[in-house]
């Protein structure tokens, strides 16, 4: 229904190739690894490659809720069998009945998701979504195990592990934590939001074969800060801005003007006729609803969650042969979330109202009272740990050889990350990280240069095997944090 597991396909001669990983397709004899410039342009905008694109030409991802049929003549036809039911909401709903139905759906979804002939655990960050999943898991299995990653040292500002420990104690799970003391990235796949998933999956796999994750709560129940403007009636009435455009703009890394400056003339010529925001907005043009919040939930479920969160979760967990399930994306919960009135999602600035109401007497109060931080990563800190390696990877010579970017613009980001006093802006650090990640991927999967580690390791606590795992868990699948 929602693309929890990916399926990629390509036609090679008279063969239909399909796999859960683009790397498997690319390994087929005779497959030509041609870089898809339009997909790469979208990657620099979103930090992900959006479905149905992949980084390779003539290779596609099957969209969620869709079947693919091939006839005897080799003709392919896609048919959608399910879509997120936006526009079918109920204008009035008794809040108490909504709370009861929400709780019943959560309990039943978790009852089904913990079915397994092997041990089951849950990832736990201490936020509303993961705490909700961990709570209902603990009730379904009579305890269970939870797993968290934390940061220390320069990365301590990004740590939320103490909140997770408190929730685990409250719900009665056996809690395990892994602290990422210092990460120096090697010649592999740093994979943005996938990094914590990689290490928490490695830890969980030592104890269980199936883990539950809290992905989906923010997308179904308007949990991100970017929903607030859309829920402000005065702004919507005044037409302060197109809410869909503003919503998508909040997710952008490289704007179209940035691309014009940063990309080489030939590269930009290949991508300028498909602006990334317009491409994503077109995917929701068929959604007929006056409810802006629900329309934005649809976009988040079909874009950010699918292309980033689910992709990274799948690749990072499968690198350790860990099956991860996502109970909040039970299609019945998604349909229910789209049916409830918008005020039960976001009301007077309070977000995920219905989910919080259903869980308020079941979890520690700090889960609901502390401000949502959103998960971010200390990218500049990590890059500085391996500056010589990064500069060897990205310099005027290597940029010219790649032929995709303008050196003077790349040099600006190098200076911002390594030479400016204090922290680089979030945007500069993030944009350079995207370039760094792409170059790592391109070296191995376009140039066929074997993965390696920075000289001397630069204090890395990550082994060479980890570098290999991260690489094969990431962009060989054709996507995201390239």
Question: What does the model show?
Answer:
- With 482 residues, the protein is an alpha/beta fold.
- It folds into 3 domains: 8-80, no CATH class; 95-222 and 295-369, 3-Layer(aba) Sandwich (Rossmann fold); 379-477, no CATH class.
- 45% of the residues lie in helices and 11% in strands.
- The chain has helices spanning 22-26, 37-46, 95-113, 128-141, 161-171, 194-205, 217-220, 233-238, 243-249, 256-262, 265-271, 276-282, 292-318, 331-339, 353-359, 366-369, 379-385, 387-393, 396-402, 407-418, 426-445, 464-473, and strands spanning 8-12, 15-19, 59-61, 66-70, 76-80, 120-123, 145-151, 174-180, 210-212, 323-325, 346-347, 350-351.
- The strands form 4 sheets. It has a 5-stranded parallel beta sheet, sandwiched between helices. A 3-stranded antiparallel beta sheet has the order 2-1-3. A two-stranded antiparallel sheet has the order 4-5.
- β4 and β5 (76-80) form a beta hairpin.
- The longest helix has 27 residues, at 292-318.
- It starts with 7 loop residues before the first strand and ends in a 9-residue tail after the last helix.
- The model is unreliable at 182-192 and 455-482 (pLDDT under 50).
Give the domain tally.
Answer: 3
The whole-angstrom Rg is 22 Å
Strand content: 5-15%
The structure class reads alpha/beta
| Proper CATH architecture of the largest domain | 3-Layer(aba) Sandwich
Give the termini distance in whole angstroms.
25 Å
């Amino acid at each position: 229904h929602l693309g929890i597991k990916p399926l990629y396909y390509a036609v090679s001669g008279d063969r239909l190739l399909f796999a859960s990983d683009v790397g498997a397709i690319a390994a087929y004899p005779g497959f030509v690894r041609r870089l898809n410039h339009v997909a790469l342009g979208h990657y620099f905008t979103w930090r992900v490659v959006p479905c149905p694109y992949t980084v390779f030409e003539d290779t596609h991802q099957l969209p969620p809720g869709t079947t693919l049929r091939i006839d005897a003549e080799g003709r392919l036809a896609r048919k959608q069998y399910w879509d997120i039911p936006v526009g079918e909401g109920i204008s009035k709903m008794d809040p108490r009945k909504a709370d009861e139905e929400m709780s019943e759906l959560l309990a039943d979804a978790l009852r089904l998701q913990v079915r397994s002939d092997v041990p089951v655990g849950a990832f736990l960050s201490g936020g509303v979504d993961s705490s909700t999943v961990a709570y209902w898991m603990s009730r379904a299995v009579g305890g269970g195990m939870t797993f968290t990653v934390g940061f220390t040292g320069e990365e301590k500002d990004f740590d939320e592990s103490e909140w997770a420990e408190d929730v685990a104690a409250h719900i009665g799970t056996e809690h395990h934590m892994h602290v990422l003391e210092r990460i120096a990235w090697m010649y592999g796949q740093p994979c943005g939001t996938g990094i914590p998933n990689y290490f928490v999956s490695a830890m969980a796999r030592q104890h269980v074969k199936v883990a539950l994750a809290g992905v989906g709560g923010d997308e179904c129940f308007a949990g991100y800060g970017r929903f607030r403007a859309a829920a402000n009636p005065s702004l919507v009435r005044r037409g302060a801005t197109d809410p869909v455009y503003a919503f998508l703009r909040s997710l952008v890394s490289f704007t179209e003007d940035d691309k014009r400056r940063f990309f080489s003339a030939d590269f930009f010529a290949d991508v300028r006729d498909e602006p990334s925001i317009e491409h994503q907005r077109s995917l929701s043009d068929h959604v007929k609803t006056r409810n802006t919040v629900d329309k934005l939930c649809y976009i988040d479920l079909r874009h950010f969650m699918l292309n980033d969160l689910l992709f990274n979760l799948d690749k990072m967990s499968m690198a350790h042969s860990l099956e991860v399930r996502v109970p909040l994306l039970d299609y019945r919960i998604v349909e229910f979330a789209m049916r409830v009135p918008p005020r039960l999602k976001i009301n007077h600035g309070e977000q995920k109202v219905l989910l919080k109401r259903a869980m308020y007497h079941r979890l520690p109060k700090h889960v609901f009272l502390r401000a949502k931080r959103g998960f971010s990563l200390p990218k500049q800190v990590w890059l500085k740990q391996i500056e010589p390696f990064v500069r060897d990877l990205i310099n005027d010579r290597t940029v010219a050889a790649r032929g995709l970017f303008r050196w003077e613009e790349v040099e600006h980001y190098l200076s911002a990350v390594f030479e400016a006093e204090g922290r680089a802006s979030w945007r500069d650090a993030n944009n350079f990280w995207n370039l760094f990640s792409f170059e790592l991927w391109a070296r191995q999967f376009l140039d066929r240069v074997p993965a390696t580690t920075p000289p001397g390791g630069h204090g890395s606590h990550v082994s060479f095997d980890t570098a290999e795992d991260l690489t094969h868990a990431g962009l060989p699948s054709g996507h995201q944090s390239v």
